[in-house]
Design brief:
There is one protein chain. This protein has 227 residues and is an alpha/beta fold. Helices cover 30% and strands 14% of the residues. The strands form two sheets. Strands 1-2-3-4-5 form a five-stranded parallel beta sheet. The longest helix is centred in the middle third of the chain and has 15 residues. It comes from Nocardiopsis kunsanensis. Pfam families: SPASM (PF13186). InterPro entries: 4Fe4S-binding_SPASM_dom, Aldolase_TIM, Radical_SAM_PqqE_MftC-like, rSAM_sf. This is 4Fe4S-binding SPASM domain-containing protein.
Length: 227
């Protein structure tokens, strides 16, 4: 299971959800911006079954800050990457390439810190990356809703974290299993597949989520897209 945001560590019940998942034998990955983590979160992250993930836009603080909108975010994120490694917290970092620049320099920076699980993805046209555009299926990987789904804080279910406009049910109203097997999810999967351009795939990396062996965003996956 993955906890993602926004910033999931700010949710008042996120630690409770993670502990419940651990108690039921599930692994939990927390996808955080690593700007600030409370002592309680650091304690939880050191428990068996917990993993941590973050996005790193550039080794250049100014370029990283331009993407996050916070001038000091690079310093905080980088320091907490170091702290996670020092504490032995399993960590993966996704380099989100804005324009293709600095990728190798950023990878070298992370490797110098001791990060071994490094992926590269691009900014996808959803959420903050949409720049005001209406969402559509063209930028999705094509495997949304197949073996994975996203549950929002209000219980709304969608095929994945990038397709939240395609609401397929709510866990407060019916069981998750029923939603995943229901007609709304089936229709969403059909629309996602129909919206793919075979001549211009959104994820050209060979190890992509359109392969059955890939579980993007979930430990121990090394595949794109990065959530």
């Amino acid at each position: 299971m993955q906890l993602i945001g926004g910033e999931p560590t700010l949710h008042p019940h996120a630690r409770e959800i993670a502990e419940h998942a651990l108690g039921n034998g599930m692994g939990v990955e927390v996808y955080s911006n690593l700007v600030h983590l409370s002592p309680a979160w650091w304690e939880l992250l050191q428990r068996p079954g917990m993993r941590l993930a973050t996005s790193y836009y550039s080794s250049d603080p100014a370029r990283h800050g331009a993407m996050t909108g916070r001038a000091a975010s690079h310093r905080h994120t980088r320091a907490n990457i170091v702290r996670a490694l020092d504490l032995g917290v399993p960590l993966r970092v996704s380099i989100v390439a804005v324009d293709g620049h600095d990728v190798e320099a950023t990878r070298e920076d992370l490797e110098h810190l001791g990060v071994t699980r490094i992926g590269v993805d691009r900014v996808r046209p959803y959420g903050r990356g949409a720049n005001g555009q209406e969402p559509d299926c063209a930028g999705l990987c094509g495997a949304c809703g197949v073996g994975r789904a996203a549950v929002a804080p209000d219980g709304t279910v969608s095929p994945c974290v990038f397709s939240t406009w395609m609401q397929t049910g709510n866990v407060h109203e019916q069981p998750l299993a029923a939603i995943l097997a229901g007609p709304d999810m089936q229709q969403a999967r059909h629309e996602i597949r129909a919206g793919q351009d075979p001549d211009n795939p959104p994820n050209p990396i060979p190890c992509g989520p359109d392969y059955d062996s890939c579980t993007p965003g979930g430990p121990p996956s090394g595949c794109s897209p990065r959530n």
